[in-house]
UniProtKB/TrEMBL annotation:
PROSITE patterns: TIM_1 (PS00171), TIM_2 (PS51440)
GO CC terms of this entry: cytosol
Organism whose genome encodes this protein: Streptomyces buecherae
Top-level taxonomy: Bacteria, Bacillati, Actinomycetota, Actinomycetes, Kitasatosporales
EC number in record: 5.3.1.1
Chain sites annotated for binding substrate: N11, W12, K13, G179, S219, G240, G241
GO biological process: gluconeogenesis; glyceraldehyde-3-phosphate biosynthetic process; glycerol catabolic process; glycolytic process
Signal peptide range: none
Function: Involved in the gluconeogenesis. Catalyzes stereospecifically the conversion of dihydroxyacetone phosphate (DHAP) to D-glyceraldehyde-3-phosphate (G3P).
Protein name, UniProt field: Triosephosphate isomerase
Gene (UniProt): tpiA
Record keywords, A-Z: Cytoplasm, Gluconeogenesis, Glycolysis, Isomerase
Amino acid sequence: MSDRTPLMAGNWKMNLNHLEAIAHVQKLAFALADKDYDTVEVAVLPPFTDLRSVQTLVDGDKLKIKYGAQDISAHDSGAYTGEISGPMLAKLKCTYATIGHSERRQYHGETDQVCNAKVKAAYKHGITPILCVGEGLEVRKAGQHVPHTLAQVDGALEDLPAEQAESIVIAYEPVWAIGTGEVATPEDAQEVCSAIRKRLAELYNKDLADKVRIQYGGSVKAANIAAIMAKPDVDGALIGGAALDADEFVKIVRFRDQ
Ligand SMILES: O=C[C@H](O)COP(=O)(O)O
């Protein structure tokens, strides 16, 4: 049993406006008892336009829910229309920034090099990256899922000092399981999460690898989370669709009660 605190993070993607966000976070706060946060860290990753509202609610009511952004610019400021910078997210007291989500890689052409720059930008401003990696269906069918995913890890972590890397969160999200209802088996999740941890030990050292939290993501719901969390190298989940339903998300957070 590791002493890593599981992180259950709800990635809302492009859902819930700022008014809906307030109602949603209030529901979560109401449903989660203080003791829930002792064993599991709970975070929401709303759209940028919701962050100020979520911050105000979390600060005002001293909620233990953490929050973060779904992306971060590699640049601090300047002529980058549409981008949101690390200093802006830090000002909103974001704990996390998701980096390299498969939808960013697929629709916005984000490469491992871009992810690497974004990981460094996040750390520069005291924000913890949730680095997303994982293979598509063709790669999985070809049996190349482990080397493919490890290459993404290598690229995103290039030249990242150990004192930063030790706090990173890595989310293994097989693309074929995202939003499809087709969840990877707990064994699939363990295979790749364990390979990522071994790679961290090679890139840095075993102590660091043992500290890093590695999440699974892809069609996680209350019905399958307990089996996934039973695997030794899985330290939480990055939850998409099921995070939009407050009751379902709370059940996922309470996976130990099942
Ligand atoms: O970031 C979350 C993942 O893309 C998983 O999404 P999903 O739970 O809807 O499959």
